[in-house]
Design goal:
Helix content is 32%, strand content 19%. The protein contains eleven helices and 16 strands. The relative contact order is 0.15.
Length: 349
């Protein structure tokens, strides 16, 4: 969704990576990609969540931190709409709407008995941490090997998010040792000497493969709605989660304050908006097949228009089918095969 200036709430609406000030994808070897992020809000997820919470409080919301919701008032059916929540201490808070933005293990979804539908699975688990002391950069860097991949993304206050993706076994045994050893295997993206000069500033975060499986849940009903991972989960390898949640929040707020006070259009909008990107996230979350992966990355690196459209996938300004067209895939595959037939040391221009 393209940004159109400031928002009265003080929270900027999601912004597309539209042309990124004219910057282009760097022509790196197949399996590597660099994306300039000067138009991206370069901040960690905790930082962004904190800004959203502060904006809500400033707008008049009342925060009840450190308390847990254990149930709902009402069953969420037409004759018994949801009318509030029950806290762990027994207090009942009444409200005309209850919004479950409470993640994969949503208490709201569980209380309503909502099933997961359309489930998909990838082949990757994730280990990641926030670091300080790495050189400042305006580039989101991705390096994909056959068995592991690395993402290095600058955030706020000089921090970097360093993510290791690999087979499900990476979360077994000594996870920290596995992570620290594996992130040194990508010297073109993250020089091991730089790692020695940096230090993690968060605990190691672990995402086993079973906890990364995708689904849809019913989006809304009488007196309730689900947002973010509570209602729909894509694989985090394509970094869609918090953008989905924020965009859904804007849609729900606009609908309730506008022409759809029952949220009758919410589920159709959400599902249409997820079309192709849901499947794309799980195709991306599979171990690379060299005969397909190498031509595609090489093709993106050599084609500025396709590279920009690929960046636009992450903000859904483009659909995967618009980037990976039949014509492009055939052309990239032929170019890669011709490149492989060239004598060693010959120019690849």
């Amino acid at each position: 969704m393209e940004g159109g200036g400031g928002d009265p709430s003080g929270v900027e609406r999601p912004v597309g990576l539209d042309r990124l000030g004219g910057a282009k994808m760097q022509p790196l070897p197949a399996g590597q990609a660099e994306v300039p992020i000067q138009r991206l809000p370069g901040e960690s997820v905790p930082e962004r969540i904190g800004r959203l919470v502060q904006a809500a409080l400033a707008a008049g919301a009342v925060g009840r931190f450190g308390e847990r919701v254990t149930g709902l008032v009402g069953t969420g059916q037409p004759r018994d709409p949801v009318r509030g929540v029950v806290l762990a201490g027994g207090e009942v808070i009444h409200a005309p709407w209850v919004f479950g933005a409470d993640g994969r293990s949503s208490t709201v979804a569980r209380a309503l008995g909502l099933a997961r539908e359309g489930e998909l699975a990838g082949e990757l688990a994730l280990l990641f941490a926030y670091w300080t002391g790495l050189p400042a950069s305006e580039w989101f860097r991705m390096d994909i090997h056959h068995d592991h991949s690395l993402v290095c993304c600058p955030c706020e206050d000089g921090m970097h998010l360093v993510v290791l993706a690999g087979p499900p076994s990476i979360v077994h045994g000594d996870r920290l040792a596995t992570y620290l050893a594996a992130i040194r295997r990508f010297p073109a993206t993250l020089n091991p000497r730089l790692i020695d000069l940096a230090q993690p500033v968060s605990r190691l975060l672990v995402a086993p493969e079973p906890k990364l499986r995708g689904y849809f849940r019913q989006a809304s009903g009488p007196g309730w709605a689900l947002l973010g991972d509570a209602g729909h989960f894509k694989h985090p390898v394509t970094a869609q989660g918090i953008a989905d949640a924020v965009e859904q929040a804007f849609f729900v707020a606009d609908a309730l304050l506008g022409s759809d006070p029952t949220l009758a259009t919410y589920q159709g909008w959400r599902d249409a908006h997820a079309a192709e990107h849901y499947e794309w996230s799980y195709r991306t979350a599979r171990r690379p097949v060299p005969e397909r992966t190498h031509p595609r990355f090489a093709g993106l690196a050599s084609d500025p228009e396709a590279a920009q459209e690929w960046r636009d996938l992450f903000t859904r300004l483009r659909r995967p089918s618009e980037v990976y067209t039949t014509e492009r895939l055939a052309r990239w595959s032929a170019a890669w095969q011709a490149r492989q037939r060239q004598p060693e040391g010959a120019s690849h221009a």
